[in-house]
Amino acid sequence: MKVKCPKCGFEDEGKFCSNCGAPLPQPNSSLEQKAPTAPPEALWVDRCPVCKSGKLLLITKKKFFGLVSAEKFECDSCGAIFRPKGDKYKLTKVTDTSNIIWQEYGNQLLTEREWKNIAYGGMSDAKQKEADMEYWMTQLKEGNIPIHMGGEAPILLKKKEELIFALPNIFLWEPRAVRRTIGGYGGPSFRVAKGVYFRVGGFRAKSESNEELRTIDQGSLTLTNKRLVFSGAKRTINIDLRKIVSVEPYSDGIAIRREGKEKTQYFTGIDQAKLTITVGERVYKEPFSGLILMYLIEGLIKKIE
Ligand SMILES: [Zn+2]
Ligand SMILES: [Zn+2]
């Protein structure tokens, strides 16, 4: 199957683009997910995104003795009003504010293409991305998306062990004192609420509000389908994925607690790596994050058991 090179646009197959050498999105990291889009020949004014039945008419109002004119587009059926700003349009008024389009896109400035997609049952680019990411994350935590980011493995892989990534320049943090955590162990907990893809906080905020955390070491972090290994200048930490008790994500790192260990360990700096995520025909380049790593680990654990 040929795919488009994300770097140069050349159509090729295999792991790397034979034109520029960039890694190609692998067929198994892309997901089929149809998003309704408008036919290319449609004009955005042909179908009102709010009522989907009327047409948008350009209304020009002369001001100041005809020197300045104010333009707006008004739906001839529902009366929705769009005002241009640059090359975008803002939905500024509807007659029925309980309308779902108003609820989702009221006062948003979107392009003609986005309004057209909405008129045909699609979404704005931002909402489409959020929907795609959530769908991708759900598949990731089910273990349905094999990821191979490559890198040099600083560890010896065992039989049937596959390298998923090896990231350099990772910091290890630990709390100075051990605080007893209450509660029994009932399987690993992956603590994150639904729909928070864009809203996971950074580790910096946590470390600044918590003076008990300190940097212990710097090194590389390697993930395989069986374990997570930190290889630092002072320490090597070998984490069997099945021994993970809890994972907490940050935008730039991850906190991990394991069975039989008192201290939570924090690994930061993972956002330096970039992932190419393909959903349907849409390609996103995203920094690697604690949330992606958390779901990736959750998916891997499901495949071990
Ligand atoms: Zn290329
Ligand atoms: Zn309308």
Summarize the structure.
This protein has 305 residues and is α+β, with helices and mostly antiparallel strands.
How would you characterize the overall build of this protein?
The model is unreliable at 182-186 (pLDDT under 50). A hairpin with a 6-residue loop joins β15 (253-258) and β16. The strands form 4 sheets. An 8-stranded mixed β-sheet has the order 10-14-15-16-9-11-12-13, covered by helices on one side. Helices cover 17% and strands 33% of the residues. The protein is elongated, with a radius of gyration of 25 Å. It starts with a strand and ends with a helix. The chain is α+β, with helices and mostly antiparallel strands and 305 residues long. It has 5 helices and 18 strands. The chain folds into 3 domains: 1-31; 44-122, no CATH class; 163-304, PH-domain like (Roll). The chain binds zinc ion (ZN) (2 copies). One zinc ion binds at residues 48, 50-51, 54, 75, 77-78, 80.
